[in-house]
Specification:
Elements lengths: L12 E6 L1 H8 L4 E3 L3 E4 L8 E5 L5 E7 L5 E8 L7 H14 L1 H5 L9 E6 L8 E6 L2 E6 L8 H9 L6 E6 L4 H6 L7 E3 L6 E5 L2 E5 L14 H9 L5 E5 L5 H8 L4 E6 L2 H13 L4 H5 L1 E6 L2 H10 L4 E6 L11 H17 L1 E11 L6 H14 L5 E6 L16 E6 L1
Parallel strand pairs: 1-4, 9-10, 14-15, 14-17, 15-16, 17-18
Antiparallel strand pairs: 1-3, 2-6, 4-5, 5-6, 7-8, 8-9, 10-11, 12-13, 18-20, 19-20
Helix pairs in contact: 2-4, 6-7, 10-11, 11-12
Length: 413
């Protein structure tokens, strides 16, 4: 990795005083300090400076990374007794995160291997605003805060030392892209090693590809792994409709589970092309080879409405939409969208068939989502039966309220 393209880790320290309410939140484990919670800074700081939080008695409370341009002004790294933020500190945190995924790597569904998983889940692993996903021998590091840019040299060096890692790819979010480019970090830059994109990896024993340099997020949506397995288990002999299919994770698991046919619906034709390739990566499996595949490019709501008008029906219907509420004022609209999706999708499920609907909108809580879906289904005279409500997988731990976003309902109707 070319460390001359980046600034070295900052030596500057910024003393921070915060409100009493913020102190209580910090001491209870919350990883964010918002701008409105800060009473004063000792001086102006730059992104990535270490912000040292003191209480009214000037006693040390914690330390975090300063992000002057963000409403989340400080992302906490450590709370308690003073501790040096150095290479040993980062190495310990990476090791703890890796150890937390050992069960996922070592214990599989019926010995079906998984080599694609989240190694570092942002704040929930003590790395606020940074995630690292692993695809076989490749790590993809994505930053959501410019505060991480000065610290990347040491982090990338440590990540590259993880067992079996041969390459590290850098990805920036929209709000960090300009700052990253200013330090020579274009989105998709390979920092360590070399790769041939897309990268192949396994999920529950199935082969998938991840466009690690150009794809959405880090190249694949890893958080639905367990739910895809559950849908696959219930797909034998069924026709399956996979809406918001993206690159076909649910459809591929359904085909491998013995589905007679899969129909994928997505607005992005390139995602559907990748979905067909993912099915093709597993075509040597007898069940996948026998499964007929249909792809439909179009708006999910419009396609569902047309399928209802045509009186189509399926043994399994999967609804996995993107987030509908990135802001608090979008919550009501998001619930309305979930209600409409449920109303359309349940009508398409054969009697006794399976219905799956997920939400990745963190502003819509689990109880509200489950109640919304259940009420709509009951109102259609098709109440949910044998319902299973799922959340985050092991590699997506949740350690604070805002860290919880994924929830899903799987039920017979």
């Amino acid at each position: 990795m070319d460390q001359q393209a980046m600034n070295p880790p900052p030596d500057r320290r910024v003393a921070v005083r915060v409100t009493k309410d913020a102190l209580r939140r910090i001491r209870s484990g919350h990883p964010w300090l918002f701008d409105r919670s800060i009473v004063s800074f000792s001086h102006d700081g730059a992104p990535g400076d270490l912000a040292i939080v003191f209480d009214d008695r000037r006693a040390f409370v914690g330390v975090g990374l300063l992000d002057p341009a963000s409403p989340i002004r400080v992302r906490l790294l450590h709370v308690g007794k003073p501790k040096s933020i150095d290479a040993a500190f980062w190495a310990d945190k990476i090791e703890v995160a890796a150890a937390g995924r050992a069960v996922l790597v070592d214990t599989q569904h019926d010995d079906a291997p998984t080599t694609g998983y989240r190694l570092i889940n942002g704040e929930n692993d003590g790395f606020g605003g940074l995630i690292v996903d692993r695809y076989g021998m490749v790590l993809v590091l994505k930053v959501y805060s410019a505060a991480w840019l000065p610290h990347l040299p040491v982090l990338v060096e440590l990540l590259a030392m993880q067992p079996g890692v041969e390459a590290v790819v850098f990805r920036s979010s929209r709000n960090t892209a300009a700052a990253a480019r200013g330090q020579g970090l274009a989105d998709g830059r390979v920092l360590v090693g070399a790769i041939a994109d897309p990268v192949l990896f396994t999920e529950n024993g199935l082969v998938f590809e991840a466009a690690t340099r150009t794809g959405q997020k880090t190249g694949h949506f890893l958080d639905q792994r367990e739910n895809r397995w559950l849908v696959g288990e219930r797909s034998r002999g069924s026709s399956v409709l996979d809406v918001f299919s993206c690159t076909g994770g649910f459809a591929t698991h359904a085909a491998a589970g013995g589905a007679s046919s899969v129909q994928l619906v997505d607005l992005n034709p390139y995602a559907l092309e990748a979905a067909r390739r993912n099915l093709g990566h597993n075509a040597e499996r007898a069940d996948v080879g026998r499964c007929s595949v249909e792809t439909t490019t179009g708006d999910a709501f419009a396609v569902l409405e047309r399928l209802v008008r045509e009186r189509r029906s399926y043994g399994v219907v999967v609804i996995d939409p993107p987030s509908f509420a990135s802001r608090a004022d979008q919550t009501v609209g998001a619930i309305r969208a979930y209600r409409r999706l449920t109303d359309l999708a349940v009508r398409l499920v054969e009697p006794g068939g399976w219905f799956f609907q997920a939400s990745c909108s963190s502003r819509v809580d689990r109880d509200t989502f489950v109640e919304t879906v259940g009420n709509v289904a009951a109102g259609l005279g098709r109440p949910l039966q044998d319902a299973l409500v799922t959340g985050h997988a092991l590699d997506h731990p949740v350690t604070f309220p805002e860290g919880a976003y994924l929830k899903a309902v799987l039920a017979r109707v």
